[in-house]
Amino acid sequence: MKAYLEHLNIHVTQLDAIAEFISTAIPAFKVRFDSGTSCDERWLHIGDEQHYFALYQATEAANARKNYGNTPGLNHVGIVVEEEVENLRKRLLKAGYTETTIENFHPARKRIYFADPDGNDWEFIQYLHADPVLRNSYDDVKTN
């Protein structure tokens, strides 16, 4: 049986703002459920029929953390998109989100990175080839 990621559960300080970021980046993702005020900690699911993000309202301030730093934690979420990443970039920039794209070049994929309102980094990947050997090549990785 093949495994796949169904959902990712994230505590966020700005639940509505993060949901808006996700729906701006991926317009096909809709709020599947919003607990509203029916429980002590508000939460919602945003996604499609197969995949979603479970967002929970954090009750404590976020710890200062730098992505790609030396502390444990999430560096970024990677999402494959079918649209041109340049169109996605324009949509997110127009909505006021901050681009964090690191230098990257690969002949089989284009990648852009943006921060959500809590500072979490999101990578959006557009594959340029169907061949998994090309898509998953690490020829562009620099090692010392």
Q: Helix/strand/pairing class, anyone?
A: alpha/beta
Question: What is the helix tally?
Answer: 3
The level of helicity is: 10-25%
Number of strands: 8
Mean pLDDT across every amino acid position: 87
Q: Note the overall shape.
A: globular
Q: How can the largest sheet be summarized?
A: 4 strands, mixed
Contiguous low-pLDDT stretches (5 residues minimum) are: none
Q: Calculate Rg over CA atoms.
A: 16 Å
| Binned strand content | 25-35%
| First-to-last CA distance | 38 Å
* SSE ordering: EHEEEEHEEEH
Placed side by side, the strands forming the largest sheet appear as 1-4-3-2
Report a brief summary of the structure.
The protein has 144 residues and is α/β, with parallel strands linked by helices.
Would you give an account of this structure?
It is a single chain. The chain is α/β, with parallel strands linked by helices. 17% of the residues lie in helices and 30% in strands. The chain is built from three helices and eight strands. The strands form two sheets. The chain has a four-stranded mixed β-sheet with strand order 1-4-3-2, covered by helices on one side. Strands 5-8-7-6 form a four-stranded mixed β-sheet, with helices on one face. The longest helix is centred in the N-terminal third of the chain and has 11 residues, at 15-25. It starts with 6 loop residues before the first strand and ends in a 9-residue tail after the last helix. The relative contact order is 0.18. The model has no long low-confidence stretch (mean pLDDT 87).
